[in-house]
Design brief:
The structure holds 2 protein chains of 2 kinds.
Chain A lengths: L1 E5 L2 E3 L21 E3 L1 H17 L2 E7 L5 H10 L3 E6 L6 H12 L6 E5 L10 H9 L2 E11 L3 E7 L3 E8 L2 E5 L11 H9 L2 E5 L7 E7 L8 E2 L4 H14 L5
Parallel strand pairs in A: 1-4, 1-6, 4-5, 5-11, 6-10, 7-10
Antiparallel strand pairs in A: 2-3, 7-8, 8-9
Helix pairs in contact in A: 2-5, 3-4
Chain B lengths: L1 E4 L2 E2 L2 E2 L1 H17 L3 E7 L15 E6 L8 H15 L3 E5 L2 H14 L2 E6 L1 E5 L2 E8 L4 E7 L4 E5 L14 E4 L9 E8 L12 E5 L9 H11 L2 E4 L1 H5 L21 E5 L5 H7 L4 E6 L12 E4 L2 H13 L1
Parallel strand pairs in B: 1-4, 1-6, 4-5, 5-12, 6-11, 7-11, 14-15, 14-16, 16-17, 17-18
Antiparallel strand pairs in B: 2-3, 8-9, 9-10
Helix pairs in contact in B: 2-3, 4-7
Classes of the chains: A alpha/beta, B alpha/beta.
Chain lengths: 249, 317
């Protein structure tokens, strides 16, 4: 079994977001970069399959030189191979999906694992797009995954509750929190990863289908009022304000 | 034509779909276009309701094979409808289903895609979308370069606007076969509760709840208000048996309810990112310095174990 795990390098989720001088992107100054949190569940699932059935795990990231950090980390955790995919115009989901699909096509992957969304752009689109471009089955927001002979069964967070999705392999699975508990890298793993090679491939630019033309910070909410008195008085005042001022009840 | 993928539940169009349909009507009026509401399923009883919300045409794909949702099957169907109608814009609600199928349709059509949009405009015949990024810590304007433009609308942001139109029903004859993945079963939530992202009123509990069993008082308040209960990451991570599906925040659900009541939640940046677009925020916390009060319209400094039951009582009274 051969597994692709797609990893995205994103700003730490505690980062205070500042807008760059171009008015349409993140100011990278003072940003600490991490592996997108949901991608960690994807990688862990791949590593467990490596341990359970001897699957081959290839970690890939579409990005620039600094994205090698997330790949190095994946190697330290146990990925057998790491590939940096360089492509221009990698800022929009379809272009990223096309680069990943171009890389994965014909390489015999049985399973393509993603986080359900990359923190930041938050489109949650790349996994589904890769599935479509390669003509594969998909299940998003997966909290449990079982594999059969050429088939999969996944539990996913649907609108009305947990949905059981069954489909054929190869498939794209996007991970939701709850799928597993990601491991930490061991010192031995970290040392070994330093000696491994991160491969690099170039994928020609796909025409951008969309682009971000502006980015702004949300306007601050005005500070509201505090309600005084004992609990019963506060509760009565709140109900009155919600009915008569906010008009939400 | 602007097409809207609409979801039905129990013979009614789901509210997030009505919101998307209403927004499509507004855009169509501004751009001189028609609106088509697309339905797919084993049956599409109730689809006619779309005529009351701005649909010029109602396109129904009804087939036994469509009774169970399939990402690839529904995507193929929707892409075919877009092509057949020469549509330039496809909207869907940013529900779990909408966000599952829409990017697949976009990839199939080589179309640009924007998820979870909170504002839409048509400028020089092209769609412009405003959407939260970095879990709402910033907002981006997305412009499309592709002929077809696909977006999902965040629930509870766009108003539902009744607008009677012809709603001419047209049956789609496509007979899709050979789906690669299908939903075999849905394990329904207890009591058929709404997903957090669709709820108009959310009562959330944080570390200040002290233990999982105490969420009962939030359930009672939520039930009285017709809302649902959420939780902060601190509460989910505390091992109180609160499932991650209830988590509001950057690594949980990002919500925009009309009313958000935060109980015993300090207001960490990671939580605020998930609820700062709520229309009205109430904070109940015993720490007057808690950051949550900075964004609360109404703040109550007090013991939530006294205030919440009093609130339930006042609402019932």
């Amino acid at each position: 079994m051969k597994i692709l795990v797609a990893l995205k390098q994103v700003p730490d989720t505690e980062t205070k977001i500042k807008i760059a001088a171009d008015g349409k992107s993140l100011d990278p100054a003072d940003v600490k970069w991490i592996t997108s949190p949901y991608d960690e569940y994807a990688l862990e699932e791949g590593l467990r399959l490596k341990e359970a059935v001897g699957a081959e795990v290839v970690a890939v990231s579409v990005g620039e030189d600094k994205a090698k950090d997330v790949l190095r980390n994946a190697l330290a955790l146990g990925a057998g191979q790491a590939v940096l995919i360089r492509t221009p115009e990698a800022g929009e989901p379809l272009a990223v999906a096309k680069a990943l699909a171009a890389f994965a096509e014909g390489k015999g992957f049985d399973l393509l694992l993603f986080g359900n969304k990359g923190f930041g752009a938050d489109n949650g689109a790349v996994g589904s797009m890769v599935a479509e471009l390669l003509g594969l089955a998909q299940a998003n927001l997966v909290t449990k995954l079982d594999l059969g002979e050429g088939t999969f069964r996944a539990e996913r967070e649907g609108d009305g509750g947990t949905e059981i999705v069954e489909g054929s392999l190869p498939a794209v699975i996007t991970a939701q929190r709850g799928l597993n508990d990601p491991r930490y890298a061991s010192l031995k793993g970290i040392m070994a990863a330093k000696k491994k090679t991160i491969e690099e491939v170039e994928v020609p630019a796909a025409a951008a289908a969309a682009r971000v033309s502006a980015m702004v910070l949300p306007s601050a909410r005005p500070e509201g009022r505090k309600l005084e008195g004992d609990a019963a008085t506060q509760a009565a005042a709140l109900v009155s304000l919600l009915k008569n001022e906010a008009k939400v009840l | 034509m602007i097409l809207v993928f609409c979801e039905l539940k129990d013979g009614k169009i789901r509210k997030p779909s009505l919101e998307a349909l209403s927004e499509a009507r507004r855009l169509a009026d501004a751009a001189g276009k028609q609106v088509g509401a697309v339905f797919a399923g084993g049956g599409a009883a109730g689809a006619e309701e779309a005529a009351g919300f701005g649909a010029d045409v109602i396109l129904k794909a009804e087939a036994p094979a469509l009774a169970a949702y399939s990402s690839d099957g529904y995507a193929a169907l929707l892409a075919d409808v877009v092509k057949a109608k020469g549509a330039t814009i496809l909207l869907a609600a940013a529900t779990a289903t909408g966000k599952d199928v829409a990017p697949r349709v976009a990839a199939r059509l080589g179309a640009g895609y924007a998820a979870d949009v909170t504002g839409l405009a048509v400028k020089d015949g092209r769609l412009q979308a405003r959407r939260p990024v970095y879990a709402g810590k910033a907002f981006a304007t997305v412009e499309f370069e592709s002929p077809v433009q696909v977006a999902t609308t965040r629930p509870n942001v766009f108003p539902v606007a009744p607008c009677p139109k012809a709603g001419t029903v047209e049956a789609l004859s496509a007979a899709p076969v050979g789906f690669k993945a299908v939903v075999k079963e849905i394990l329904a939530k207890a009591g058929g509760k709404l997903d957090l992202t669709e709820a108009e009123i959310i009562v959330s509990g944080g570390r200040g709840m002290k233990e999982g069993a105490n969420f009962k008082i939030l359930e009672e308040l939520a039930e009285t208000l017709g809302g649902v209960v959420g939780a902060s990451r601190a509460a989910v991570d505390a091992g109180w048996g609160i499932p991650h599906s209830m988590q509001v925040g950057q690594t949980g659900k990002v919500v925009s309810p009309t009313l958000y009541i935060a109980c015993g939640i300090s207001g960490a940046i990671q939580h605020v990112a998930g609820m700062s677009t709520s229309k009205f925020v109430v904070a109940i916390n015993k720490d007057p310095e808690a950051p949550i009060f900075k964004l609360a319209d109404y703040g109550i400094v007090g013991d939530l174990f006294e205030v919440v039951p009093e609130l339930t009582k006042a609402l019932k009274g």
